[in-house]
Amino acid sequence: MANRSFLKPALAGLLILSSAVPASAHVGHGETHGLMHGFMHPIGGADHMLAMIAVGMLAAALGGRALWLVPASFMAMMAVGAGVAMAGIHLPFVELGISLSVVALGLTVALRLPLPIIAAMGAAGFFAIFHGYAHGAEMPIDASGASYAAGFLVATGLLHLAGIAAGTGLSRMISMQGAASRVAGGAIALAGLFLAV
Questions:
Q1: What number is the average pLDDT over the span 41-48?
Q2: Which residue range forms the structural domain that includes residue 91?
Q3: What's the rounded Cα separation, in Å, for the pair 78 and 17?
Q4: Which DSSP state fits 144?
Q5: Of 167, 106, 81, 30, nearest to 39 (Cα)?
Q6: What is the mean pLDDT of the chain?
Q7: How far apart are CA 103 and CA 185, in angstroms?
Q8: Taking a C-beta distance cutoff of 8 angstroms, is the pair 98, 69 a contact?
Q9: Considering the domain boundaries, does residue 113 fall inside one?
Q10: How does residue 168 score in pLDDT terms, banded at 50, 70 and 90?
Q11: Is residue 46 part of a domain?
Q12: Which of 14, 25, 16 is nearest to 163 (CA)?
């Protein structure tokens, strides 16, 4: 029976890992005008999507006030990163920072590290700067810039909610405490390594 209960989270982890394709949502790629383009930017890149889901899963694992504080920290610092890009300030190693965010956040979920909420907020916020920079570097400086920003913020919030739901749902899906979340977190971390290479 234990093998059967492990099957569902293992399949979920493989599904997440199989979605790890090189992202096309980074600096210099694609159109950047309007709400829908902004909305699709985080969803169109596997690394953005996996990191934001991992933030939600981390928040779910910590529970309590972390459910809103960790994602809110990510979103706030993502806006800061976008502002840095829009101001024309160069931030080095953006792609590496984004890839490492997937690895670090995935491992944090997989290992169920008992982080204090402030440390989880700091880690999420630090990595969010790189994600925000990638978004901001593509944000148009015209009338559609605000709607583009609104689009990527809404998509980010929805991905965080998906991660919270996944983290909560996977833990309830089987009797072993947090095993499903660990498998999913490990799959996210492996996908991050793949993206970094």
A1: 83
A2: 2-16+32-196
A3: 24
A4: T
A5: 30
A6: 78
A7: 9
A8: no
A9: yes
A10: confident
A11: yes
A12: 16
**Is there a contact between 59 and 185 (Cβ–Cβ < 8 Å)?**
no
Overall domain count for the chain: 1
Identify the pLDDT of residue 194.
74
CA 152 to chain centre: 12
CA distances from 31 to 67, 87, 110, 129 (A): 33, 20, 35, 21
Does residue 23 sit within a domain?
A: no
Query: What confidence score (pLDDT) does residue 99 get?
Result: 92
Is a pLDDT exceeding 70 seen at residue 10? Answer: no
Residue that wins the pLDDT comparison between 174 and 62:
62
pTM over 0.90: no
**Residue 74 CB coordination number (10 Å):** 33
Pairwise CA distance, residues 33 & 86, whole Å: 15
Structure token digits, residue 163: 């991660």
- Cα gap 131→189, rounded to integer Å: 17
- 22 falls within a domain: no
- Tell me what the mean pLDDT of segment 73-77 comes to: 96
Transcribe 16-56 into DSSP letters.
Answer: HHHT------STT-S---HHHHHHHHHHH-HHHHHHHHHHH
Q: Which two tokens stand for residue 76?
A: 């706030």
The token duo for 40 is 């699709």
Going by pLDDT thresholds of 50, 70 and 90, the confidence category of residue 167 is confident
